[in-house]
């Protein structure tokens, strides 16, 4: 038997030596085949490359985000960190060395000026910058610190510094800037050296706004600031910094570039050697000084880079003769092409997510051109990919291609924040599994420096409501703690400056002036989710003033009635019944939603205060939460337990936020199940209700109803887009209509992750893998096998290691297997048993499956509720309608599937021929059904090792 330590990390950076903090927290994962292994002590070793190694012994089991036990790091300090642990089997070997490099600057060390192109000729003019400098003998190390108000890439002596894209990303530039830290020692040599910078506008010069009112928010021209520290073996240091002594050129190969526009690149204008020493820079001018930004800090979140290559799946020729490349997957990134032709020939690449009327469906892009052009230099085989933009697309129309086209000459490069995947789910229903994969791709595309709403149209903004509802799913699928913690820092800065939480971060629409429930509540919900899922107490501490500020802001609006009423709200955004031109017009009353969120955030704030030891705040906010809860029940709930806004979202909020308790909660769950059945098990919620509705059903004993809703394929449903060929989650339930046309609304996208937030329920409930303590220190194993599935499995790489739960239904029994990682325990909840606890290791249990109900004979006198609860009978009825009268095929949308109405009541508006066909079909169904006895006995057997 053996125990080892790996995955040693500093703060949020796995696989990177850089740390942005003088005292980074340390985490590690223990692998052990010792059953029930628990850490009783750990030892950390710090080696600075001197004769002395410092070792610190830590008692206890903590291995996640452990406080730095050594003296604070100095700027540029380097060393190696090792960890070993002790359990019942004694001490493990030391982990591999984890290099550590302090990537931050010291106080006052940032000295670079922002520079740009003097007298630009057009908006956001791309610029080349260069500078030469000398290296003396004895150089030990060279470090580049660089940032931009725009997007930049650096070359040293003709070589790119790194593979990152669109650096430094998007932050609220007026409040916070990020600098990259790169070791460039290996790119330098003695004598003359050169540094070159390709600079474009990126997000800084983009025009933001809708309906013809878009305008630049930050500035109209990009600028760059950078400095190189040269360290010599005799202790000398020299800074090479940006300033007026640098050279600038506005006539490079990038002729235009924008996030929404795309990129225009003319290879004839490439200036060979421009980033190498000795370049003849005639025509270049002295760089101009630009308005400075805030002093930048080191990157704390993940870098953006190419993470996957996707080949062409099919080449489609449209009726008009256009050539369209289908990559088989809606993705975010760019095309890389390999082409040869005459100088001046231009290849144009247009991007779209879907096809419509035989061509690219570009209407949803609105004002975004999403078009790249490449003008050939005529030098033979040329390879190119845009570097200053990105697109959301599955299809690309390629025109102007010289000569014959080989699909191998075009590749889609997937771009996004480079996070480690940590979550997997699969099940026996291939459509549900495909939906889960679509959720994953939606997150990949929209986590690009910040969590955006969509990656394709003239928006791509950090909407707070979208990520608020999606954050539990995101925290399962990817190691996004650092990504979201960095974005929350931006949220707090915008909130502090504006006096309220904006609906988008960065706030380029000045949205903080109009607070909105569920969107502004991201200030409270996200830090709590990161604490629960990653055990990150630090982010809870850092964001607590922001959390408290939001709750106080809304309580001031609620006043003495303790209800948030009457203001602007997004409400249950894109409720399926909302008209295309008014996505906020939902069934759930917006004031009801707003006040429910006021209770939820106040309650979470009280819980956060308890964790942080703020006892006075615990009492204060627990009391305020109860005042809101009482007011909400008094205002919106009848004595019989019916919510006045009688909609799925209303009941889901009351149940899952804990507003309703005890018998009232159960009555609401029963009413919710009644509504879901009445609606034919079709979803009836928007952004707010969708993450909650299946939980509200399963938590009140209606797992079957939740399963029927999950596996529904009719529109609106989670699986309807899958039936239409979707490879990501859509913004609207019907972004693509059944006839293949695009939703007529002005706002529709085919890559929005919010409605995919139900995936967290798949992980926690359907597969049965959930955190029972912050950071999964205790895991909950509680699968709820859905009647429509025969197996399901989930794996999550927790901060302690891989946890796996799987179940399979065979011969009337269900076998559950689980892997519990070392240094954790699990609480297990299985049918017909009391909860029990298991330790780390492999476990297996078997239980009797719930007996399947014997189908009853079905006639036209059978109630509509019984018909919808019998999927085979339901499809028999609908098929009969459609076969005889195709125009009546959508009758299921007009029927309320209620228990007090017989099936023949639905015939009133159709022909006698349809009624006869239904009767004949039901007679045939009854004749073919086999009836078997089912036992109600439930037993459990266990085998563990």
What does this structure look like?
The chain has 945 residues and is α+β, with helices and mostly antiparallel strands. It has 17 helices and 45 strands. The strands form ten sheets. Strands 21, 22, 26, 27, 28, 29, 32, 33, 34 and 35 form a ten-stranded mixed β-sheet that branches. Strands 36, 39, 40, 41, 42, 43, 44 and 45 form an eight-stranded mixed β-sheet that branches. A hairpin with a 2-residue loop joins strand 30 (355-356) and strand 31. Helix 8 (648-656) runs antiparallel to helix 9. The longest helix is centred in the middle third of the chain and has 22 residues, at 537-558. The chain is globular. The two termini are 14 Å apart. The model is unreliable at 931-945 (pLDDT under 50).
Q: Which stretches of 5+ consecutive residues score pLDDT under 50?
A: 931-945
Instruction: Please state the CA-atom Rg, rounded to the nearest Å.
Output: 30 Å
Fraction in helix: 10-25%
- Give the percentage of residues in beta strands: 25-35%
From the spread of the alpha carbons, the general shape counts as globular
Mean of pLDDT: 95
Distance between the amino and carboxyl termini: 14 Å
Q: Could you list some keywords that capture this structure?
A:
45 strands; eight-stranded mixed beta sheet; 17 helices; 945 residues; ten-stranded mixed beta sheet; alpha+beta
Task: Give a brief rundown of this model.
β12 (151-156) and β13 (159-160) form a beta hairpin.
């Amino acid at each position: 038997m053996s125990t080892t330590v790996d995955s040693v990390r500093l703060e949020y950076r796995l696989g990177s030596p850089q740390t942005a903090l003088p005292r980074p927290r340390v985490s590690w994962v223990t692998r052990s085949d010792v059953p029930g292994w628990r850490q009783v002590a750990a030892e950390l070793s710090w080696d600075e490359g001197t004769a002395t190694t410092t070792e610190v012994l830590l008692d206890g089991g903590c291995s996640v985000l452990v406080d730095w036990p050594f003296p604070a790091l100095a700027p540029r300090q380097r060393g190696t960190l090792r960890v070993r642990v002790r359990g019942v089997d004694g001490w493990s070997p030391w982990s591999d060395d984890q290099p550590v490099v302090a990537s931050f600057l010291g106080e006052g060390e940032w000295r670079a000026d922002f520079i740009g192109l003097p007298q630009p000729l057009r908006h956001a003019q791309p610029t080349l910058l260069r500078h030469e400098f000398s290296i003396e003998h004895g150089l030990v190390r060279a470090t580049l610190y660089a940032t931009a108000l725009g997007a930049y890439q650096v070359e040293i002596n003709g070589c790119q510094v790194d593979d990152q894209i669109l650096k430094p990303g998007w932050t609220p530039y007026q409040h916070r800037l990020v600098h990259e830290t790169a070791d460039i020692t290996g790119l330098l040599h003695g004598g003359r050296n050169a540094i070159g910078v390709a600079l474009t506008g990126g997000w800084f010069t983009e025009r933001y706004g809708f309906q013809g009112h878009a305008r630049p928010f930050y500035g109209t021209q990009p600028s760059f600031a950078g400095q190189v520290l040269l360290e010599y073996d005799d202790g000398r240091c020299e800074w090479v910094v940006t300033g007026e002594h640098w050279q600038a050129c506005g006539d490079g190969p990038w002729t235009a570039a924008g996030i929404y526009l795309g990129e225009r690149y003319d290879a004839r204008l490439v200036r060979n050697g421009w980033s190498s020493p000795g370049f003849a820079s005639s025509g270049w001018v002295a760089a101009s000084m630009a308005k400075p930004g805030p002093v930048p800090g080191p990157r704390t979140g993940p870098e953006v880079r190419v993470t996957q290559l996707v080949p062409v799946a099919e080449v489609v020729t449209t009726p008009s003769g256009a050539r369209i490349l289908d990559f088989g997957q809606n993705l975010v990134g760019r095309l890389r092409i390999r082409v040869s032709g005459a100088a001046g020939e231009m290849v144009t690449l247009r991007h779209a997510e879907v096809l419509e009327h035989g061509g690219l469906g570009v209407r949803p892009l609105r004002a975004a051109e999403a078009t790249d052009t490449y003008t050939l230099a005529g030098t033979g085989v040329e390879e190119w990919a845009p570097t200053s933009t990105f697109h959301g697309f599955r299809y690309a129309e390629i025109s102007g291609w010289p000569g014959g086209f080989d699909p191998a000459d075009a590749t889609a490069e997937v771009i996004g924040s480079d996070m480690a995947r940590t979550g997997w789910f699969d099940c026996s229903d291939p459509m549900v599994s495909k939906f889960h994969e679509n959720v994953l791709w939606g997150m990949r595309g929209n986590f690009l420096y910040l969590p955006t709403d969509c990656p394709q149209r003239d928006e791509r903004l950090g909407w707070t409501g979208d990520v608020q509802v999606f954050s539990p799913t995101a925290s399962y699928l990817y190691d996004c703690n650092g990504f979201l913690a960095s974005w929350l820092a931006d949220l707090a800065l915008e909130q502090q400056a504006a006096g309220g939480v904006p609906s988008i971060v960065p706030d380029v629409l000045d949205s903080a002036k109009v607070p909105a429930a569920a969107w502004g509540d991201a200030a409270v919900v996200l830090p709590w989710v990161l604490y629960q899922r990653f055990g990150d107490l630090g982010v809870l501490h850092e964001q607590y003033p922001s959390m408290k500020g939001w709750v106080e802001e809304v309580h001031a609006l609620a006043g003495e009635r303790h209800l948030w009423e009457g203001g602007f709200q997004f409400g249950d955004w894109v409720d399926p019944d909302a008209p295309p031109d008014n996505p906020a017009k939902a069934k759930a009353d917006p004031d009801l939603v707003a006040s429910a969120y006021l209770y939820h955030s106040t309650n979470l704030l009280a819980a956060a205060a308890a964790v942080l030891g703020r006892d006075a705040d615990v009492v204060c906010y627990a009391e305020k939460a109860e005042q809101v809860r009482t007011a909400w029940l008094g205002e919106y709930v009848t004595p019989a337990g019916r919510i006045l806004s009688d909609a799925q979202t209303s009941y889901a909020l009351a149940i899952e936020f804990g507003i309703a308790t005890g018998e009232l909660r159960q009555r609401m769950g029963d009413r919710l199940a009644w509504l879901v059945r009445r609606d034919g098990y079709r979803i009836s919620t928007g952004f707010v209700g969708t993450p909650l509705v299946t939980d509200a059903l399963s938590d009140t004993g209606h797992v079957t109803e939740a399963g029927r809703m999950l596996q529904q394929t009719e529109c609106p449903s989670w699986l309807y887009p899958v039936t239409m060929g979707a490879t990501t989650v859509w913004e609207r339930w019907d972004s693509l209509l059944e006839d293949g046309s695009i939703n007529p609304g002005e706002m529709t996208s085919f890559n929005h992750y919010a409605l995919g937030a139900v995936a967290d329920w798949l992980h926690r409930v359907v597969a049965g893998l959930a955190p029972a303590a912050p950071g999964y220190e205790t895991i909950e194993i509680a699968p709820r096998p859905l009647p429509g599935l025969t197996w399901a499995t989930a794996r999550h790489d927790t901060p302690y290691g891989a946890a796996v739960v799987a179940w399979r239904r065979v011969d009337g029994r269900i076998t559950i297997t689980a892997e519990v990682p070392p240094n954790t325990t699990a609480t297990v909840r299985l049918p017909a048993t009391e909860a029990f606890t298991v330790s780390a290791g492999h476990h297996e249990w078997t239980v009797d499956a719930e007996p399947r109900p014997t189908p009853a004979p079905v006639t036209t006198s059978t109630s509509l509720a019984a018909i919808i609860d019998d999927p085979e009978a339901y499809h028999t009825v609908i098929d009969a309608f459609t076969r005889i009268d195709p125009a009546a095929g959508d009758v299921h949308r007009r029927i309320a599937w209620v228990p007090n109405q017989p099936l023949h009541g639905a015939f009133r508006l159709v022909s006698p021929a349809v009624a006869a066909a239904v009767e004949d079909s039901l007679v045939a169904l009854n004749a073919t059904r086999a009836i078997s006895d089912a036992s109600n006995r439930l037993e459990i057997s266990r085998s563990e090792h």
